[in-house]
Amino acid sequence: xxxxxxxxxxxxxxxxxxxxxxxxxxxxxxxxxTPIDLPEPPEAYTLAEASAELDLLEAEGGLNLTGxxxxxxxxxxxxxxxxxxxxxxxxxxxxxxxWLAFDAMGWKEISFPAPLPEAEVDIAAVLPPDDLLRxxxxxxxxxxxxxxxxxxxxxxxxxxxxxxxxSDAGMETFAFRADSGEVIV
Length: 185
Hints:
This protein is of the alpha+beta class. The chain has 4 helices and 8 strands. Helices cover 28% and strands 30% of the residues. It has an 8-stranded antiparallel beta sheet.
């Protein structure tokens, strides 16, 4: 029995040595893993871009927005081109209020314990936030420079845009008519 075990061990060692002493395998040609460079998603979106994503999500059956009306729009971390890090829509439907939030991860329904304004926001009848911010750059830029802020927060409700510039140095809020962009004093 001892001879059979020795022969078996020698056979295994011979197989391993023969496999390891051969020439190196040629590098593979074609195939294999190929890196794919995908574009990075933007870190901020205009309300129109976020709304397009919401329309797509609704068309795919991800959200049912039938019978809902927008009562408030919130934008956080917006630059003067109107691109915000996040958007929140306050919606009213037959069952009550709902809040939808959009960021780089997409749209999701959130719990937000805040009352909605009574008046509906007709998105088609108001200036888009990006147009308003670009048109009011002369008003907002000095406040942003004074406070050392790069972005603003946006609230659209009851026909008024409230734009807040804030930093550790302080805070200033400006009000504009949502339909014309006119400064409200």
